[in-house]
Amino acid sequence: MLRHAFYWRTPVGDEEPPLTRYVNGWGRPGDRSLIVFDEFVPVGAAWYRLFTGEDAGFGFVDEQTPELAIAVVPSRRGRGYGGELLSALLDCARKDGFEAISLSVAKDNPARHLYENYGFEPVREDDGAVVMRAALSADNP
C-alpha cells in the first residue's frame, strides 16, 4: 500500500526522505492505521504518523500534526473505499486528540477533490505536490 500511496513521487537526491519512514518502527506514539478488505483481500489502507522537523515527511506541517497517507489499489478505485478510509481515519485522529492532520498530494491527483470535501485546505506547494491540512474539530466531519 505504501507504493500505491506514493507512486507519484520519485526520490530526488539524498534530501528527499525515503518512503520507509512512513512505516519503519511502526507502533510508536502517534501511529494509527486502518485497512479495508474486499472479499478477504486487502484493497486499501490509510495511516498517520507524527514526524519531527529533522525527519519530516512530504506533508509535514509541524510536530503536533500527524501526516496522513492513504491508498486504494487501482483495481478497486472509484468504489468508495478511499472515502471510507479517510472518514474513519479522521475519526480516529479526533479520538486520539489531534487538532489537525496533514497530507501531500500531487496537484493533478483526482483524490485532491476528495480531501477538499473533508476540509483539507492547501498550506503550500512543493515540487508538483500540494501540502494540505484539515482542522479536526467536531464541526468539521
SSE blueprint:
Elements: H1 2-5, E1 32-38, E2 41-49, E3 67-72, H2 81-95, E4 100-106, H3 111-117, E5 121-126, E6 129-135
Antiparallel strand pairs: 1-2, 2-3, 4-6, 5-6
Description of the molecule:
Helix content is about 20%, strand content about 30%. With about 140 residues, the chain is of the alpha+beta class. The chain has a single domain, classed as Aminopeptidase, CATH 3.40.630.30. It has a three-stranded antiparallel β-sheet with strand order 1-2-3. A three-stranded antiparallel β-sheet has the order 4-6-5, with helices on one face. The longest helix has 15 residues, at about 80-95. About 30% of the residues are buried. Residues about 10 have low confidence and may be disordered.
Tell me briefly what this model is:
The protein is of the alpha+beta class. Helix content is 18%, strand content 30%.
Shape: globular
| Major sheet size, sense and barrel closure | 3 strands, antiparallel
Along the chain, the helix and strand elements come as HEEEHEHEE
What is the architecture at the second tier of CATH?
Answer: 3-Layer(aba) Sandwich
What Rg is obtained from the alpha carbons, in whole angstroms? 14 Å
Strand order of the largest sheet: 1-2-3
Q: What distance separates the N and C termini?
A: 25 Å
Average pLDDT confidence is: 85
Low-confidence runs of at least 5 consecutive residues: 8-12
CATH superfamily: Gcn5-related N-acetyltransferase (GNAT)
* Count of strand segments: 6
Tell me what portion of residues adopts beta-strand conformation: 25-35%
Q: How many structural domains are formed by the residues?
A: 1
CATH topology: Aminopeptidase
CATH hierarchy class name: Alpha Beta
Number of helices: 3
How would you classify the helix and strand content by structural class?
alpha+beta
Q: Assign a percent range to the helix content.
A: 10-25%
